[in-house]
Design a protein that fits this description.
By secondary structure, the protein is an all-alpha fold. Helix content is 74%, strand content 0%.
Length: 145
Amino acid sequence: MALMARVSSKVAAGAARRSVVAAPVRPRAAVRPAVVVKASSQEDPSAELQKQMNDALKTVQEKWEATSDAEKPAAIAIIIGAVIAQISIGATMDAVNKIPFINGFLEFVGLAVTGVYAYRYFTDPAERENVKKSIDSFTKAVTGK
C-alpha cells in the first residue's frame, strides 16, 4: 500500500508541475502557398502521347491489312511466341536473381565481357572503323535509309 501511495503522489505532483509550467499558445498567421503560373507554348504531354499512340495504331492496322490472309496465322503465332518468350525470360531472370551469389557473379561476368569487348574493338583504330561500318550497315538495313 505504501508503494501505491508514493506512485499516486508522484503522479499528482507531476500533474501539478505541468500546469504551472504550461504557457498559452499564441496562434500563428497561416502561411499560404504561393501560386506560380508559367506560360507555355508546348502541347499537353498527354495529347502528344495520344497522337503518337494513334499513329502507331494506324501503322499497325495498315501493316495488318497489307498482310495476306495466308500469313496472318503465322504472324499471330510469332507474336504469341514472342510474348511467351518474354514472360519466360523474365521469370527465369527473377529466379536467378534470388540465388544469393549467382546474381553478383553474373554481373561481374557481364562487366568483364563488356570490358574485353571495349578494349578489343575500341583501342585499335582499324577495329573502330570496322565496328562503325558494321553498325552503319545494320542501321541502313533496318531503317531502309
